């Protein structure tokens, strides 16, 4: 789907699984290499300890690497499929306030993925997401295994 980063930001903001968990996309870079996300603490995502429910934090991490990789490589002319193959979540400290995280995909990662897509046809890699509270303390680490497949190479 051909959308601008700004249009996709607004579409994602009101996507029900994210909206009702109070996950808010603050920014998507126009070059599709990064995103800034806020996970707002609210009555809709509290657990019994009054911290943000762990499932909400996992949901917040789930879509963004696949979206970015998809946009980067379709803009380069690739016919691909992308999804998050697996994830590992480490809860470092209870999320007692709103959390934020930034994702940035650097040139080296894009070049590595492109080389592997052109030779093997499938690229998988674990990439980190660090979620910080309002004080700047690390609360959650998520390691997302991204799967990208070049549909023009059959193996």
TrEMBL record:
Listed SUPFAM superfamilies: Thioesterase/thiol ester dehydrase-isomerase
Superkingdom in the source lineage: Bacteria
Record-given protein name: Uncharacterized protein DUF4442
Phylogenetic placement of the source organism: Bacteria, Pseudomonadati, Bacteroidota, Sphingobacteriia, Sphingobacteriales
């Amino acid at each position: 789907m051909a959308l601008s980063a700004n249009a996709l930001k607004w579409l994602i903001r009101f996507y029900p699984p994210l909206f009702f968990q109070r996950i808010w996309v603050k920014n998507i870079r126009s070059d599709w290499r990064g995103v800034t996300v806020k996970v707002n603490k609210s009555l809709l995502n509290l657990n019994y300890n009054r911290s943000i429910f762990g499932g909400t934090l996992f949901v917040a991490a789930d879509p963004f690497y696949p979206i970015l990789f998809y946009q980067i490589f379709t803009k380069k002319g690739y016919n691909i499929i992308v999804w998050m193959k697996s994830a590992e979540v480490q809860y470092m400290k209870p999320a007692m306030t709103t959390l934020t995280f930034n994702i940035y995909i650097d040139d080296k990662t894009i070049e590595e993925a492109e080389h592997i897509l052109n030779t093997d046809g499938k690229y998988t890699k674990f990439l980190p997401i660090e979620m910080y509270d309002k004080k700047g303390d690390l609360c959650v680490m998520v390691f997302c295994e991204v799967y990208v497949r070049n549909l023009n190479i059959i193996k």
